Amino acid sequence: MELNLQRLKVRSSPAVLNEPPDQELIARARKGEAASFEKLMRRYNQRVFRAARSVLRNDAEAEDVVQETFVRAYRHLADFEERSSLATWLTRIAVHEALARVRRSRLSVALDDGTGRRERGFSRVESSQSGPEEQASSRELRSVLVAAIDSLPEGLRTVFMLREIEGLSTIETCESLQLSTEAVRVRLHRARLALRQYVEKQLGEEVHGLFTFAGTRCDAMVARVFQKLGLPLTSA
Fold first, then answer.
1. What are the pLDDT digits (tens) for 49-107?
2. Angle of helix 34-56 versus helix 215-229 axis, rounded to 10
3. Number of other CB atoms surrounding residue 143 within 10 Å
4. How far apart (Å, rounded) are the C-alpha atoms in residues 91 and 66?
5. pLDDT for 181-235, tens place per residue?
6. Greatest pairwise CA separation for the chain in angstroms
7. For residue 8, which of 180, 217, 210 has the smallest C-alpha distance?
8. Residue 214: how many CA atoms within 13 Å on its side-chain side?
9. SS3 of 83-145
10. What is the four-CA torsion angle of 176, 181, 184, 187, rounded to 10 degrees?
């Protein structure tokens, strides 16, 4: 059955009424205002997590990348020239860090002594961490969708994650991954075709809940980053 992916497009991190814009929060964070940086983290935690996980296919590794992304971002806020959006800048950092981990893992595999005892990097499809969503009635369908997305080649998977699950526009995806518009469109088309081999019914609205990063997970990530940076934890 034809997948109606047009229904899946949703904007994440929508503008919240009375919330200060990124530029204002960045300016405050540059002056050492931890609360402003916390707001930025909570605003973009999910996007960064989804970008990292699309490369790594592993929740724990993706969370490590989220932490590293925000630590680096905070330490280099003065270098951010705002020629792109903050979201794009953070996504690039996350994708580059995730890809670096994949390359290191592949090198580790190449140096293996052939005994097969070493963990084989990210070649395995990891199951998602258990949680309330996995215990819901839609658990089986979500599991199928996660497996289908994880089975995509890296280049297709990252584009699909950002375009269809995170809801970025083609231009935003191009900027985040430093790809041409045509490359993004071709990869998205190929990803959709590949997913049809796994899923026989329409994905519907279920995909919106995949790879969420909110609530206690978001709180924990803020705490981890602030602890590493030596910043006082505030309430956003």
1. 999 999 999 999 999 999 999 999 999 999 999 889 999 999 999 999 999 998 887 65
2. 110
3. 13
4. 10
5. 999 999 999 999 888 876 654 455 566 677 888 889 999 999 999 999 999 887 6
6. 59
7. 210
8. 9
9. CCCHHHHHHHHHHHHHHHHHHHHHHHHHCCCCCCCCCCCCCCCCCCCCCCHHHCCCHHHHHHH
10. -160
Token pair 């792109």 in the structure block, residue: 84
Structure tokens at 15: 């503008």
Residue 132 has pLDDT above 90, yes or no: no
Looking up tokens 């469109």 gives 185
Q: At what angle do helices 22-30 and 34-56 cross, to 10 degrees?
A: 110
Domains and CATH numbers, the chain: 19-112+130-229 (1.10.1740.10)
What's at 198, amino acid-wise? Y
